[in-house]
């Protein structure tokens, strides 16, 4: 059985904190919402880095760069420096909403000029935002970004043309469990596919058992999927030769918000932290079956590889039941 490539990706971003919908009452949060200090340690970025390193694994951190319009280069530059110093991979993430928030702060834009979706931007503006984002990434990291991921996983066909025109050859923007593009060619669950000259490696999406009120597609995330579901997806992919498998997480998933919106504090989320530990322990235990890679490591190979067939991986009823128990019922009972 060939190795199945797995990539643990972390969208590393600041918190708008309701400032878009409640201007004047709320202000965005910067580095504190990535570190999430509680009980004397970082219950966000620190948990992720420490867990990966405990098992000898490296992650790919998609750092959001347009926040520098609002906060300056310092906060995200410092975070990027720590991640890189500890041996992990950095790639480019961008949320267009920060352009609007910075403009509103400066009094240069009005409420009708807001969007956080690359799919809502015109062709020329997509190119403009991508070029700006690439330049900011260079400033923060001292190198070129090899891969791109859009904020909110918003995408349309035009975005891939814009990526090609701005020099990108690799993207991980599609995730049907979060956003389903209108174009059929963009509705990928796991397959690596070349779109407009850009190789897309989507965030893994899968189909849970169909029950009323539940989504038909889910992205494989550490907060949204039970460990039983993630383990089943890994096994299915290995058995069917699927991959690479791109898993998604955020620093905010490993603790819960407490306090008030403008005086935030945090408490650990032990179940999600345990889920990450289980994933990393499992992957490190079976290195001949699963190969954990970063986007930088795999870049040259992925952009040259042929397109793969897409697959609909499914979670079990038992996995779904554990997810509903862990993510819904236990928190309602105050058992986190």
Plain-language structure description:
- By secondary structure, this protein is of the alpha/beta class.
- It has a single domain (4-332), classed as Alpha-Beta Barrel (TIM Barrel), CATH 3.20.20.
- The protein has helices at 32-35, 45-54, 68-71, 74-85, 97-106, 123-141, 157-165, 227-240, 270-285, 295-304, 317-332; strands at 4-12, 37-38, 41-42, 60-64, 89-94, 147-150, 170-171, 193-195, 198-200, 205-206, 218-219, 245-250, 255-260, 263-268, 290-292.
- Strand 13 (255-260) and strand 14 form a beta hairpin.
- Helix 2 (45-54) packs parallel to helix 9 (270-285).
- The longest helix is centred in the middle third of the chain and has 19 residues, at 123-141.
Uncertain residue segments: none
Structural class: alpha/beta
Order of H and E elements: EHEEHEHHEHHEHEEEEEHEEEHEHH
Assembly of the depicted chains: single chain
Q: State the total count of DSSP E strands.
A: 15
- The span between the termini is 38 Å
So, CATH architecture? Alpha-Beta Barrel
Q: How much β-strand is present in the residues?
A: 15-25%
Radius of gyration: 19 Å
Give the tally of structural domains.
1
CATH superfamily: Glycoside hydrolase/deacetylase
Tally of separate helices: 11
Name of the CATH first level: Alpha Beta
Shape summary: globular
Helix content: 25-40%
What's the short story on this structure?
The chain has 336 residues and is an alpha/beta fold. It is 37% helix and 18% strand.
